[in-house]
Amino acid sequence: MTLRLPVFLLALLMFFAPLASADELEAQANELIKRALASSLSYELTESLTTEIGPRLAGSAAEARARAWAVRNFESLGFDKIHIETFDMKGWERGQISIQVGAPYTQPLMGTALGKSVGTPVGGITAPVVRFADYAALLAADDDALTGKIAFIDGGMVRTQDGSGYGAAGLRRRVGAYEAAKRGAIGLLIRSVGTSHHRNPHTGGTSYRKGTPPIPAAALSNPDADQLARLMVLKPDLSIHFTQTSRFIGTVQSGNVIAEIPGSEFPDEVVLIAAHLDSWDNSPGVQDDGVGVGIVMAAAKLIQDFGQPKRTIRVVLFGAEEVGLYGAFEYVRAHQAAGDFDQIMMVTESDFGAGRVWRMDTGISKNDEAKADRIQLVLAPLGVTKGKRTASGGSDVSALTRAGAPAISLVQNGWNYFDLHHTPDDTLDKIDRSDVAQNTAVYAAYTWMVANIEGGFHPPEK
Question: Is the sign of the CA dihedral 113, 203, 430, 228 positive or negative?
């Protein structure tokens, strides 16, 4: 006998079926949150990487050991399709530095070479210093204002929860050497791009451009920048002797480490979660970005143990982020050439320390925002609020969003991040286990929902 249901009842069943599916997905995400908060795997992976490998400068033997560490740990965790995509790059070494104030106030200053800076000539340089209150003041200087002199770009950095003070402050580090050389400078000193009050200078990359000579560039710790500013009030024509042995070392190899959880229904649709494996050479790189590695690996492992997602989850540990997102740009190039880049349905990266995730930003189609809002509501009990609609996903994956991939940023609390960023103080004792567990819970639940949600996600409209 065939049972015939009334038309209105069929309509009700069809109406409520999607809601039941949504409820089930949210229940699964909540179970993953519960498991993640009880797990210490992300902390253990962070501890292992930063203890056993330590500093991991891009292209170095230590970064190669980090790739081997990642493969070994992915294998022990039972991941699929583990491989390394290598690429060549120009290597760089920091070398030694000496910054000495001249008479009558002879004394050393604490500084560090900026990443990819050239060194001074053998024996160093001795020259008068010209102080600029900030980067804008340098731009206002005449073309020949610094001929034969050392530029000193001062100016603080605003402490913010979302790290938004970093962009403006970072200009002096990223392009200050070019602008100073354009005005005739033979060297550059900057106030560290950071918020610490310790005598730990903050490194970070600088760049040169064609048409101007590369000049040696270094960052002073914040207290030493204060000291130099005071000294220059006493003696405006103060001279400094500056020696730096940083140098380029020819072609070296870096690489991206990749592992996957294959999807059951849509294996060609990829949800990509990422961190970067390299660090600067002056610390174990715990906040930047050892803990990000631990978070995304552990979140994916929790999902793998929980069940097979409908879409493929790909974990990418990028190489050579600190020196210019080389691994990310190489990933885009290689996968566009292979014709599979458009399989990426979502990108997200953990690369802002170990502070708790407090906001979810989106960079997706307007038609998909309601789905993102559903995910945010599941994350809300963890303290995650609805955020901006201009997400790039994170540092490395911003290269992927520029190439057309949709993104969601899980924004961490960075109030204290720039006290440690790119300094020798970026060590394991600075992170809180419960904060790391919250990050892992957010990533596990978020990734599971994206990988299973009906209809998926699409890039923002142009």
Answer: positive
Q: How far apart are CA 200 and CA 198, in angstroms?
A: 5
Phi-psi region of 326 (alpha: psi -120 to 50; beta: other; left: phi over 0): alpha
**In the block, which residue shows the tokens 């599916």?**
21
Tokens of 194: 């950071």
How far apart are alpha carbons 315 and 258 in whole angstroms? 6
Question: Residues 327-352: pLDDT tens digits?
Answer: 999 999 999 999 999 999 999 999 99
Bridge-based pairing of strands 125-132 and 266-276 is unpaired
| Residues 141-183: tens digit of each pLDDT | 999 999 999 999 999 999 999 999 999 999 999 999 999 999 9
Q: Say which CATH topology domain 95-245 has.
A: Glucose Oxidase; domain 1 (3.50.30)
Report whether 166 contacts 157 (CB < 8 A): yes
Active-site residue list: 321
The pairing of beta strand 125-132 with beta strand 150-153: parallel
| C-alpha count within 13 angstroms, C-beta hemisphere, residue 318 | 33
Regarding the domain with residue range 27-91+250-452, which homologous superfamily does it belong to in the CATH classification? Zn peptidases (3.40.630.10)
